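Exercise 7b. Backbone tokens:
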């Protein structure tokens, strides 16, 4: 299994989990969850999206289709070494996980959607970020290539000590550690197109979904999670609402709750799949 730059694999059993980071993020934001799932016996693969963990120009040279191609290729690689494959994503990574489930039901046994972001509509977001749907037009016209939405306090993290460490990493200039300090307009434009695409595909998803969202998410409001619960109709959707976290639920105060719920979700589906196969034999 080939590994790119900051990707990593934790070898485990025959149930695999691929974890997907968010826009301008890195696989590191999934590391805590990855280790927790690995301790439960799963093989875990944290994929790096195309254009990420480098410079802003690296990111702007890619589109949402490139990011999705990273996910689909990663899932195909992981599937070769496991019997059951689950996919989990944070923020924009959740959109990519949902798209994979819609596009490739042959690969995906279940989806964990963490702090899904169809829109930047959380309570800390500047009002103009809610007009992100206009950015694809800007990109098509060549407007705003070097403009960014800078990250705003509290940076998706409720835990103050953790927030200080993450912000220091973001401002260090090493994007492979904690990602870029801002969201380039053209990258947000691509995410907006991805969001619209996934919205239309939610009704095609046949894999069970675990939707994890903070009620006080500062970046993406609870409406983003509710959209999944409302539109995924061909598979069961389980919702976990967190009361003591902000957007970065994979590293914030309730990360252990997120890990334990994900383990329970995966084990239940694997058990049900095994029983169904046994009954059919």
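Sequence design result:
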């Amino acid at each position: 299994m080939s590994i790119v730059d900051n990707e990593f694999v934790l070898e485990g059993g025959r149930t695999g989990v691929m974890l997907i980071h968010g826009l301008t993020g890195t696989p590191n934001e999934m590391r805590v969850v990855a280790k927790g799932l690995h301790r439960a016996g799963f093989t875990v693969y944290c994929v790096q999206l195309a254009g990420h963990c480098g410079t802003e120009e690296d990111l702007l040279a890619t589109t949402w289709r490139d990011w999705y191609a990273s996910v689909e290729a990663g899932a195909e690689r992981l599937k070769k070494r496991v019997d059951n494959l689950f996919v989990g994503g944070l923020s924009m990574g959740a959109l990519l996980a949902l798209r994979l489930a819609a596009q490739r039901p042959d690969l995906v046994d279940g989806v964990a959607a963490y702090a899904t972001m169809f829109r930047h509509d959380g309570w800390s977001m500047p009002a103009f970020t809610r007009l992100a749907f206009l950015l694809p037009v800007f990109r098509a016209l060549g407007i705003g290539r070097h403009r960014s939405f800078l990250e705003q306090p509290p940076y998706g993290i409720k835990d103050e000590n953790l927030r200080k460490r993450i912000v220091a990493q973001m401002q260090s200039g090493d994007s492979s550690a904690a990602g870029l300090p801002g969201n380039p307009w053209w990258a947000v434009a691509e995410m907006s197109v991805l969001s619209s695409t996934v919205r239309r595909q939610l009704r095609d998803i046949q894999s069970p979904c675990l939707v994890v969202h903070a009620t006080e998410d500062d970046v993406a409001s609870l409406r983003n999670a509710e959209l999944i619960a409302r539109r995924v109709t061909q598979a069961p959707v389980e919702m976990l609402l967190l009361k003591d976290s902000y957007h970065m639920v994979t590293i914030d105060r309730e990360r252990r709750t997120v890990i334990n719920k994900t383990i329970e979700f995966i084990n239940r589906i694997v058990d049900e799949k095994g029983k169904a196969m046994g009954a059919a034999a």
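Instructor comment: DSSP finds ten helices and nine strands in the chain. Residues 255-280 form the longest helix (26 residues).
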